[in-house]
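Working notes for the structural subgroup meeting. M.R. asked for a predicted model of this chain before we commit to crystallization trials. I am recording the input and output together here so anyone reviewing the notebook later can reproduce the run.

Input as submitted:
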Amino acid sequence: MKNLNYGIIGNCRSAALISETGSIEWMCLPQFDSSSVFAKILDDNVGGSFEVVPTFLEQIKQYYIPRTNILVTRFICKDGIFEIHDFMPRYQTESGGYYLPPDVVRYFNHIEGEPELVVKYNPRLEYARFSTHNIIEDCYIKSTTEKGAYDSLYLYSGFNLQSILDERPLKLTEDNFCLVSYNQKLLPQDVRREKLKLERTKVYWLNWAERTTSFKKYEDAIVRSALTLKMLSFDKSGAILAALTTSLPETVGEERNWDYRFCWIRDASMVVKIMTSLGHFRMARHYLNFIIDILPDKDEKMQIMYGIRGEKKLTEQELTHLSGYENSAPVRIGNAAYKQKQNDIYGILLDVIFQHFEIYSVSLEHSEELWTITRNIIKVVETNWKKPDRGIWEIRNENKHFTFSKVLCWVAVDRAVKIATLLKRDLYIKPWSKLRDTIKEDIHQYAWSDSRQSFTQAYGSNDLDASVLLMESYGFISANDQRFVDTVLAIQKDLEHNGLMYRYKNKDDFGTPKSAFTICSFWLTNSLYKIGRKKEALEKFHALLKYSNHLGLYSEDLDFETKRMLGNFPQAYSHLALIETAITISNGELTEEEEIKEYIY
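Returned structure, recorded in token form:
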């Protein structure tokens, strides 16, 4: 049984997953959504990997250099000790831009002895559809496809290239390197140059982490999650990925396997809001520029998701030649959900736009474009809020009047009223306020179930849904409102199992969900803390922190019984929820009086 014991390295152009044994097992070049060059995570036999295997290994340790995205794998062997410092270069240039090539540098740091090792370099280009041919040319190994679409990859190294291809043992007696690049290099590559890239990249991440708002508790977890979210942002456009991978299953052996290498408006907007609260304003401005670029016309229909360069068509297909993670087929690329209608996206996006009008007032760059987008979104909400949709969980075969979607339509109009107030656009305030109140009244009337004593998943339903927990976070209802308190406790009773949360338990188009959705467990923890169950929330939060992998990273799902991670990885949703919950708890204090009250409760 596998677990997702991987580290992620990246440079906001692409990223790679490296196993706890130092094997690169997922990487797409030159960009996040390109075809894979290493995909062992999706097929042990044909996917391709880049492994380093010491001959006399005794122990492996793995960690990030603190407050950076440089991953260190330390090999302790009978004949010596060495480390591999894995990273993708990212640092500022003299011109003020950023150097972020489609490269992975594996810097071998010699510590003692003369450890013997084998470099197993096995790229499989273009999702391993066909075999890949390797040949030594000049000072590099060139890998090319033999059939299908042409692609190529280059490996530079201070090790003997023929020994790498033959997988012959090598002795490490001093620092060395391997550099994987999508492009042929114009300058000579040597240890000194790779060491310089390492140090410059380290400085970049240390400076970035230093700009992150500090908190008195959970600082390490917050910073690691923030660094991970930064790596899931695409520098060229401002888009933010839901996750790095495709087709890692929600449940092993089932078909809930999706490609998450795209920008969901909902997920990305949530990430941007939390990153702004941490002081990373450039990331937010970059994302809002992305929104402006994908909505250039006033009648442009907003999709729930886009490609990372703003692509609107994300055709889904299956790669039948790959067996899938632990034989969980199918492996999918593309995502048909882009065609869905989800009314919650409008509120989440306007929440971010309002946040930035608050911070920058009307001096925000592109403020007129954002005001136009705001007005157009309200037109859409006015027309669509009464209509059913597919909801936050992207139910593929059924439209419903989902409560979360209705609440976020209310959020859209509420934030639009606040934006209009900030901008002194008095003409819009009165009609929008009336619409806001109408939506709120409708939700209270039709989403509440007297029999369940809870807001439910959808109008007229008695099924419960973890997304409803967010109605307090978005300001729809206060934490001390009895209806919200009762909803939190009802959802906990119905959806919690072995300390983890279902999204919902009612059957969908793929049957009944069988794994815990990680973000929902954080949502419950956050909600319990806010309604005064602080001690219980703390216990749950500390348990959740233990369910990350050895590097503090989270996937989309957790197995209820074993607590192993499942689903796409690392998951932006999970990390933003961790940060939000950590901030809530860090900003609060559990007093002796509160402990006594909770005990009595």
